[in-house]
């Protein structure tokens, strides 16, 4: 027990300074009318190493705390659990004698230390409570020895009492951190400790005396796997939230989530622009019922759902007269209480549908225009820019960037029309040879007897009909640059031998000459054939195959990168617009149809198809109906089913459904209008029509 040192609240400044000049204890008490009134923690007021004598009485009085909040321990009193918890809540406890007079006070830490020495029922309960704390707890004395712990702590460090009690804590936890808190008195948090036996997160806190010195420490640990599990759970919640936002952003209809009080919580990215007075994101946090009272919407479907506690469908009308079909769905918690209302709405006015379609067209046009400008700025040095947005073509472009730094032989493989020559030109453009010749020779379009002279050249009088001055071959003409050998799989075996020599020796011998000419040419070959299969059949030399197969590049067909189709179509259309000074553009449904077609002729077929649309269309907008009409002509096998015998009913239904969808698309041009005519959803028309196109290819 400590003695109480008290001064009157109205004491003079000089008298106060004299009384406190030699005072060393932490707590000072104040009296009022000769009665103990309040106390103050001088340590909290003291700054740095300054003495208490620098404190002023006004400062003491303004920070004083009433003693009414303190617990009172009476002589011969039996400790109760409620008194223990009250004592834990305040820094000191007053002590009274048998006559109910205050005779001193106990600090909280002094009292707890005494409690732990007493073997009473309440103290055992307190110890049990401390032992039940889920975090590990270790108490260290001034000699860094562990003097107390709880069972959770032992389990987390995978140890036993005999290996911990009385042992140096520095041999178990971070030695440098324990030394630091004894030296500085500062708390150290969130330190990871991993050994063969444990993986824990550790906090180090000093235990200080009244004078401010450190005479012990408390080490609190958490099991790292448990912390990691909590972190993973938080990450899972974030991922779920991201997934939900992604789903909301892709839904065509407007979705609004409202709580049971009517407050708007969140909404989808797509919403009915003309229905609300302002942007929907500005209404988050506002009450839907207030909006109904102001006449902004009528009736509120949320109120109906809350009243009926079931799904409700209604036509709602906005202040500006716009109408939407709204479907409200109640969301219940595990207790069966309604927590949320999710309202899905779709604008049922023709004007809004047309505006939405126009907006989509403008956004898509803007997107493709920006992408083309980006590509144009990126490839100003080359008129043969590669148009793409797919990940597969992105990989090829990245590969081109790497290959262009070297002069290795490149073999470009892919179906006819995928743009193999454009890939070759891009390599040449980005290489150190860009200011040297780029020559192209189609090995399958020149007769065998002429191909040799074209490749290697000839001297004067080499053969009948030869130029009297002779002629340089493609290898010599391309010296220092790039020679693109297209359709190399069609090269005769007799010439494959001579080509192999050029690749090996870097020399060519013109027809009619015996003198070799050194050439520096990078060979880029291309083919739409399976050279491996040709090697096995003996129609292509194996040694030549390995010579040209140094850097293979496979260009995927257009049907494997359908996301590139709208961009390529738009690019082709823009070039035609510039050439003929027109302003044609695709409708969204038209681009969707183009993207759904397989394009067996790849880019070449797509470009020809777009030019045909450009020439035959009468309006500036190229509609889905125009695309479908020409696609129907291209696909000659697209005939309407004629039922001439008994067939399964399901098959007959499918045939009729296909005819109706095709007729609706030919008549109305858009999936939205076709869906209205057929009385089914727009998404169903789009899905079935795309499936129909793929089936008829």
Number of strands: 29
Structural class: alpha/beta
Count the helices. How many? Answer: 27
In CATH terms, what is the architecture of the largest domain?
A: 3-Layer(aba) Sandwich
Question: How helical, in percent, are the residues?
Answer: 40-55%
CATH topology of the largest domain: Rossmann fold
Strand order of the largest sheet: 14-13-18-17-16-15
The N- and C-terminal alpha carbons lie at a distance of 97 Å
What's the helix and strand layout?
Layout: E1 6-8, H1 13-20, E2 27-32, E3 35-41, H2 42-45, H3 57-62, E4 65-66, E5 71-74, H4 81-89, E6 92-96, E7 102-107, H5 108-117, H6 121-131, E8 136-141, E9 146-149, H7 151-156, H8 161-164, H9 175-184, E10 188-194, E11 199-208, E12 214-223, H10 224-250, E13 254-259, E14 264-267, H11 288-293, E15 297-298, H12 301-308, E16 312-318, E17 323-332, E18 338-347, H13 350-378, H14 391-403, E19 410-413, H15 420-430, E20 438-442, H16 448-456, E21 457-458, E22 471-472, H17 474-477, E23 482-486, H18 493-505, E24 507-508, E25 517-518, E26 522-527, H19 531-537, H20 542-548, E27 551-554, H21 565-580, E28 585-586, H22 588-596, H23 602-616, E29 621-622, H24 624-634, H25 649-668, H26 671-678, H27 682-696
Parallel strand pairs: 1-2, 5-6, 19-26, 19-27, 20-23, 23-26, 28-29
Antiparallel strand pairs: 2-3, 3-4, 6-7, 8-9, 8-12, 10-11, 11-12, 13-14, 13-18, 15-16, 16-17, 17-18, 21-22, 24-25
Domain PAC: 308-360
Organism: Lentibacillus cibarius
Domain PAS: 122-192
């Amino acid at each position: 027990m400590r003695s109480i040192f008290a001064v009157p609240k109205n004491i003079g400044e000089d008298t106060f300074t004299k009384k406190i000049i030699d005072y060393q204890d932490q707590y000072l008490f104040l009296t009022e009318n000769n009665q103990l009134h309040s106390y103050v923690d001088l340590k909290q007021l003291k700054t740095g190493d300054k003495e208490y004598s620098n404190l002023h009485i006004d400062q003491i009085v303004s920070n004083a705390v009433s003693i009414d909040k303190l617990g009172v321990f009476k002589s011969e009193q039996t400790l109760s659990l409620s008194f223990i918890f009250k004592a834990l809540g305040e820094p000191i406890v007053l002590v009274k004698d048998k006559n109910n007079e205050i005779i001193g006070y106990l600090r909280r830490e002094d009292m707890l230390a005494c409690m732990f020495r007493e073997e009473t029922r309440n103290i055992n309960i307190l110890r049990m409570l401390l032992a039940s704390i889920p975090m590990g707890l270790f108490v260290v004395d001034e000699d860094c020895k562990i003097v107390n712990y709880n069972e959770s702590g032992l389990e987390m460090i995978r140890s036993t009492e005999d290996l911990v009690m009385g042992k140096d804590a520095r041999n178990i936890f971070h030695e440098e951190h324990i030394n630091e808190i004894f030296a500085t008195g500062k708390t150290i948090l969130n330190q990871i400790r991993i050994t063969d036996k444990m993986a824990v997160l550790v906090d180090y806190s000093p235990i200080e005396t009244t004078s401010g010195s450190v005479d012990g420490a408390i080490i609190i640990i958490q099991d790292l796997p448990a912390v990691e599990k909590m972190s993973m759970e938080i990450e899972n919640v974030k991922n779920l939230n991201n997934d939900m936002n992604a789903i909301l952003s892709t839904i065509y209809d407007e979705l609004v989530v409202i709580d049971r009080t009517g407050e708007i919580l969140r909404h989808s990215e797509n919403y009915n622009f003309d229905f609300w007075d302002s942007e929907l994101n500005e209404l988050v946090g506002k009450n839907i019922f207030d909006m109904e009272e102001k006449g902004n919407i009528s009736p509120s479907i949320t109120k109906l759902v809350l009243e009926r506690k079931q799904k409700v469908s209604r036509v709602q009308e906005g202040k500006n007269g716009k109408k939407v079909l709204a479907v409200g769905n109640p969301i219940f918690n595990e207790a069966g209480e309604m927590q949320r209302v999710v309202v899905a709405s779709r604008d049922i006015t023709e004007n809004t549908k047309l505006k939405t379609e126009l907006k989509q067209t403008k956004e898509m046009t803007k997107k493709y225009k920006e992408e083309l400008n980006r590509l144009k700025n990126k490839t100003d040095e080359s008129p043969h820019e590669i148009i793409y947005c797919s990940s597969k073509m992105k990989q090829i472009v990245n590969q081109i960037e790497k290959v262009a730094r070297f002069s290795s032989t490149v073999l470009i493989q892919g179906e006819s029309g995928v743009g193999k020559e454009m890939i070759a030109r891009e390599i040449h453009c980005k290489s150190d040879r860009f200011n040297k010749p780029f020559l192209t020779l189609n090995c399958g379009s020149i007769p065998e007897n002429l191909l040799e002279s074209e490749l290697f050249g000839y001297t004067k009088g080499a053969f009948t009909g030869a130029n009297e001055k002779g002629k340089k071959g493609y290898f010599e003409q391309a010296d220092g640059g790039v020679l693109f050998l297209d359709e190399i799989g069609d090269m005769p075996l007799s010439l494959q031998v001579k080509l192999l020599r050029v690749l090996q020796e870097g020399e060519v011998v013109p027809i009619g000459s015996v003198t070799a000419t050194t050439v520096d040419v990078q060979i880029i070959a291309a083919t739409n054939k399976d050279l491996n299969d040709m090697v096995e059949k003996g129609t292509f030399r194996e040694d030549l195959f390995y010579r040209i197969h140094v850097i293979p590049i496979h260009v995927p067909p257009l049907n494997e990168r359908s996301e590139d189709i709208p961009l390529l179509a738009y690019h082709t259309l823009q070039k035609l617009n510039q050439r003929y000074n027109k302003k044609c553009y695709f409708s969204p449904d038209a681009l969707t149809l183009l993207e759904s077609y397989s394009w067996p002729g790849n880019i070449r077929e797509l470009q020809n198809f777009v030019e045909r649309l450009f020439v035959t269309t009468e309006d500036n907008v190229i509609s889905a109906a125009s695309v479908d009409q020409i696609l129907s002509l291209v696909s000659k096998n697209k005939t309407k089913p004629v039922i001439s015998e008994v067939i399964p009913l399901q098959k007959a239904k499918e045939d009729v459904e296909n005819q109706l969808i095709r007729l609706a698309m030919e008549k109305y041009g858009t999936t939205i209008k076709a869906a209205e005519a057929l009385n089914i959803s727009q998404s169903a028309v789009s899905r079935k029509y795309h499936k129909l196109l793929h089936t008829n290819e």
